[in-house]
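Human: If only I could read C-alpha cells as easily as an amino acid sequence. Underneath my words sits a plain record pairing an amino acid chain with its C-alpha cells. Take your time, and here it is.
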Amino acid sequence: MQKEWFEDWFDTNYYHVLYQNRNDEEARRFIHNLIDHLGIPKGVKVLDLACGKGRHSITLNELGYDVLGVDLSPNSIETAKKHVRDGLSFDVHDMRKRIDGQKFSAIFNLFTSFGYFSDEADNLAVLTSAHQMLEENGLLLIDFMNVKKVIEEMKQEETKTLSSIDFHISKYCDKQHIFKEIEFEDQGQKFKFTERVQILPLSKFEALLEHAEFKILRTFGDFNLSNFDENVSDRLIILARKN
C-alpha cells in the first residue's frame, strides 16, 4: 500500500530543517493563553494529538499537566522522547485510532495538524477517536489555519535557504486542498515532496464536530485568543466540548 504524503515527509530530517525556525516562544505564549482561558485543573491527564517534536507537550507539562504526546512520525517521537520526565511521555500513534485504556480531560490538536488525509472520512475518524478518549464533558482544542485568508494571501513561489539547502517552494490550491510542493537538492541528490491539506472552513468543522457529538463553545482567530473573523483572522482555533 502506498504511504500517505505525511508519512514520508514528516519523518525525514529535511522536514525539521525546513521548519526549524518555528517560533517556540509564540507556541509557549499560546499555550499559556489557552490554559488561562480554559481553567483546566492542574494534574489532570491531557493529550497532545499530532505532537511533532513535542514543543506544546513540554509547555503543558511545565504548567502542571500529565501529558501524553503522540505522533505518526517515529523521527519526531524519537526527538520528543529526549524530554521525557515525570508526567510527560511520548509515543508513536495514528490519530485516527483511539488509544486503548486511556482517558483525558482535554485533547489538543495544534498547528494545523488536521485534514491531511486522502479520504474525508478520516477527519471524522480522528474526531470520533478523540470523543472516545475524552472524559465526560472533556474539551477538544483544534488549531487550524484560516483557509480563506491563506488562499487570498498565498505566495505562489519562494525559496528558503536553511542549513545550506535551497528549498524551492510552490503553493497552489484546487477546490478541496491547498498544496505546497517542496523541491531541493542535497549531497548531489534531488528531492521533491508535496504537502496537502484539505480546505476546511469553519462551516465544515461545525458539521464534522456535530457529527462526532461535540459542541463548539468558542472560536478564536489568533494565538492571543481574539475572536475569529473569517476575513482577517490568521488562525481558526476551535474549542469544543464532548456531548
Observations:
- The chain has a mean pLDDT of 95.
